[in-house]
Amino acid sequence: MFCAAVLLCAACLGRPPPAESVTDSEWSSANMCHSVYSRLDLSGDQWSTAQLMRALCTVLLILAPLAARAQGTSAQGTLAQQAASQPPPTPPSLVPPTQKPARVSPAGAPPAKTPPPSADAQSPSSPSDDFDLLPKEKLVDSARVAEIERKATLRRSMLQLHQLGGFLTLGALSVTVISGQLNYHDKYGGGGDTGRYRSLHQISAYGSAAIFAATGLLAVLAPNTSDKPVRLDTATLHKILVSIATAAMLSEVVLGPLTSGAEGSLRQRDLALAHQIIGYTALATTAAGFLVLTF
Amino acid sequence: MIALLASLLLATLTLDLREGSLTYTLVHKLHEVQGVTHALEGRAQVQPDGIGRVQVRAKVATFDSGNSNRDEHMREVTHEAAHPYATVKGTLSGLAFPLKSPAEVTLHATVELNGVKQAAEIPIKLTPEGARVRAKFAVSLSLDAFQIDRPELLFVKVDDRVLLSGELLFEEAK
Predict the structure, then answer these.
(1) Rounded to an integer, what distance in angstroms lies between the CA atom of residue A164 and that of residue B142?
(2) DSSP A101-117
(3) Which residues pair with B161 in a beta bridge?
(4) Is residue A162 part of a domain?
(5) Distance CA A113, CA A185 (A)
(6) Count of helices and strands (H, E) across chain A
């Protein structure tokens, strides 16, 4: 449109436009129209033609800048397309230095696809952690930490022994219950009351009571490194069960000698039956307390 | 230059962790143990170019395995007194917010536990939930790599591999 306007002005003047004036992109369209306008010779006998030409050039003066603006807009669009086809710049350094920055996609374009994750998972050579989005952690008291670590080490040693004691308790209690059952059968079940299991039962009973007590003390005396809320979990169930077992064991420690001392009395069998039932209870609750920890 | 930096900072989207859980799964010969915590802190930042940074952490003491003795044991072997937090942080790319549909990205992460840092590639599934984003992930880690003296029960140690999984709900920071 701009070129057509210039050609029209030139034709009206009877002069061709300078070739460079059309092709030079820096040439001001307003200056060009003003130049054309100034070349008009407005004498009296040419008034009507001159008026017509002046009006035409005035219109062109108004339209020329608009045409030039439209051309400029078109050129800018072309530049944007060219820039989009060029490699985009790298993003600012919000990315940690160890992370290779990705390219920025041009506005409106979809983000670049990320490469598939590398196979070297858990390699300590590619950390990307030199930033903190959360508040810094509080500094720990080194003296307190040392004290807790010391207690934890002692606690772990004691609880390891507690587990060993648990195994031994279960073994010793099993021997005690089995020998007690055999002894009961020997005495009251038609075994002839030979007393051949009596010593074994006594030794295993005292042994299991001692092991049981030591095992329990190892757990009770182990230092706590933290406050634990009281709630129903497997550890609490373990404690409940071994508490029942402890009560049963204490009863047996009393009931065993009582039963043995009631030799010749009619109530000895009743005592022996109670002793037997409580003995099984001690074994069952100890075993349950052992098993519950495996859940 | 300052204006450019300011505009970039303004354009960075910050997401805060609203709720979620982290779970570890340990395998022992006799049973499988899961410890869960819901007491999490987390934040994510996403730049206009789709690059994001994430940091999530939880106090080791808040993990609950259903057995207070076992939890205390875990605190001991991870030296919780000296290193109270388990932290995951890292960078990811290819994010376009607001999220229109579920997406899977990989977090180039550093996991810190027991005062030891280990790099890990963590696949994350992102799901938009209104203005929020739910992130699910799971990654297998080595206890030995974190120099953790593996806990044992009945003189049998747990397996070296521990599965760390999480479900996190992020929301734009206000």
Answers:
(1) 28
(2) PPPPPPTTSPPPPPPPP
(3) B142
(4) yes
(5) 81
(6) 8, 0
Q: Which of B30, B41, B120 sits opposite A122 (nearest CB)?
A: B120
Looking at residue B89, what is its pLDDT?
Answer: 92
Q: Tell me which residue of A70, A109, A60, A249 sits closest to A172, measured CA to CA.
A: A249
CATH class for the region spanning B13-172: mainly beta
| Residues of chain A positioned with their CB less than 8 A from the CB of B109 | 128
User: Quick check: B67 and A235 CB within 8 A?
Assistant: yes
- Please give the Cα distance from B105 to B125 (Å, whole number): 7
The answer to whether position A84 is within a domain reads no
Tell me which residues of chain A, numbers 94 to 123, contact chain B at a CB-CB cutoff of 8 Å.
94-96, 99, 101-105, 110-114, 116-118, 120-123
Q: Which residues touch B122 (CB under 8 Å, ≥6 apart)?
A: B88, B90, B106, B107, B109, B137, B139
In this predicted model, which residue has the larger pLDDT, A227 or A16? A227
pLDDT band of residue B8 (cuts 50, 70, 90) is low
Q: Which domain range does residue A11 map to? A: 2-74
- Looking at the complex, report in whole angstroms how far the Cα of residue A117 sits from the nearest Cα belonging to chain B: 6
Does this model's pTM top 0.90? My answer is: no
Query: Same structural domain for residues A203 and A284?
Result: yes
Please say whether the beta carbons of B158 and B125 come within 8 A.
no
Name the residue with tokens 């229109």. Answer: B100
Confidence of residue A3 (pLDDT cuts 50, 70, 90): very low
Query: Poorest-confidence range of A132-146, B30-44, B58-72, B81-95?
Result: A132-146
Q: Is the peptide bond before B98 cis (omega within 30 degrees of 0)?
A: yes
**Residue ranges per domain, chain B?**
13-172
Assess whether pLDDT exceeds 50 at residue A29.
no
Residue B132: name the closest of B17, B9, B10 by CA: B17
Do the Cβ atoms of A127 and B117 come within 8 Å? yes
Is residue A123 a part of any domain in this protein? Answer: no
Convert the pLDDT of each residue in A31-63 to its tens digit: 444 444 444 444 444 445 455 445 444 544 444
Contacts of A98 (CB under 8 A, 6+ apart): A126, A127, A128, A130
Tokens of A109: 């374009």
Q: How confident is the model at residue B155 (pLDDT cuts 50, 70, 90)?
A: confident
ipTM of the complex: 0.80
